[in-house]
Amino acid sequence: MNRSLLIALISTDYPPLRTSAAVQLRDLSREFAAQGHRPVVIVPSPMSDRPWVVEQLDGVEVLRVAAPPTRSPSFVRRAIAEMWLPFAMYFNIRRSPFASANWDLLVWYSPPIFFGPLIAKLRRTSKGKHKGRTYLILRDIFPEWAVDLGLVRRGPVYLVFKAIAAFQYSVAEVIGVQTESNLHYLRKWERPPRRIEVLRNWLAVTPDVGSSIVVRNTPLAGRKIFVYIGNMGVAQGMDIFIDLIHSLRDRTDIGFLFVGRGTEFARLEAEKASRHLSNALFFGEIDSSEIPGLLAQCHVGMVALHPDHKTHNIPGKFVSYVQYGVPVLARVNPDTDLMKLIEAEQVGKAYVGNSVTELKEIAEQLMDDDGLRRSMSERGRELGRSMFSSSVAVQQIVASTIAPATVG
């Protein structure tokens, strides 16, 4: 085993938040500990009565430091808060028991793109065995994806965000992106000692402890269920799924379940109600411990990526579906790594386009062929074990940052 490392694991998301990022960081921190290291999760908190607090969660130290809330619905307010975030966090870390910690490894999760100054300061003050090696877990290429969706124009705001992202990249010795196609976005940053590599998303498989959502106690009892778990925002482009629900409204053996949160949640639920779609139900997000129990009641998991997206990602919900043996129906942007993965591994069906009729045909094929779903389920579980385990992610991060960083 490698010698034990003191690791700072920095993110805006950690339980009790229920986001996919929070679940990923929880699983990663647990695995760091299981492999003999000492992870310290550092997360911002909107505390007003104290500058910091240290908790023990499942054997992992969590340092919560006071910082402004960054989840405002206002884009401007959120951007201002996120820009101030690293400075507020550093100020309160310096007041905490970890003020003089000698970090061996600094790992941070992006989004957001604003942690660069914090990482730079922590690295300069660290005198650990490996002098604060740095690893950026990059899950979104921002602001590129926001430009693709028309949320940001190529002007002064874009250039500011671009500069902030560039600084974040500059302080990382290794950057782990989600898929092979994301590598080309960062090739110009790959020069010694900096290196870019693919770090797959990960998820720890947990036991089925049941779920607060019990399908047999809902109007969808007895139906085969399409389920969508997670964020419902502009980046997902989910209106086509509402049209799909409408097209299948006469199939009394098929139902749709949406579980999560997001800027589009209320609008989608209202659209469902206005169109009198009794074959679909919406629920707020649930604790991650309930996901195995929920998925055990469902037959196909849905993934949505806005067709205007040009960057590539493997959503956490996709990893959840395959880990627990649920075949996938994905509406994706053209020629994505996710589409290639689904088709190559035969764990579901991927659709590129805007035709509800075509999507309906694929959906019915999945629901009407029990044998097809069983074979996809088995292949999904195997794919989850081989490609998306937290154990592999931890080993890769430690090996990549402790070994000399060279261009590969």
What does this protein structure show overall?
With 408 residues, the protein is of the alpha/beta class. It folds into two domains: 6-204 and 389-402, Glycogen Phosphorylase B (Rossmann fold); 215-387, Glycogen Phosphorylase B (Rossmann fold), CATH 3.40.50.2000. The chain is built from 13 helices and 14 strands. Strands 3-4-2-1-5-6-7-8 form an eight-stranded mixed beta sheet, with helices on both faces. The longest helix is centred in the N-terminal third of the chain and has 19 residues, at 75-93. The relative contact order is 0.12.
Low-pLDDT residue intervals, each spanning 5 or more residues: none
Order of helices and strands: EHEEEHEHEHHEEEHEHEHEHEHEHHH
Question: What about the largest sheet?
Answer: 8 strands, mixed
**CATH topology-level fold name of the largest domain:** Rossmann fold
Separation, N- and C-terminal Cα atoms: 24 Å
Name the helicity range. 25-40%
Strand order of the largest sheet: 3-4-2-1-5-6-7-8
Q: Tell me the name of the CATH homologous superfamily of the largest domain.
A: Glycogen Phosphorylase B
Question: Quick one: CATH class of the largest domain?
Answer: Alpha Beta
> What spatial form do the alpha-carbon principal axes imply?
globular
When the domains are counted, the total is 2
Number of helices: 13
Strand content: 15-25%
Look at the helices and sheets and give the structural class: alpha/beta
User: Which whole number gives the mean pLDDT?
Assistant: 90
CATH arch. level architecture of the largest domain: 3-Layer(aba) Sandwich
**Strand tally:** 14
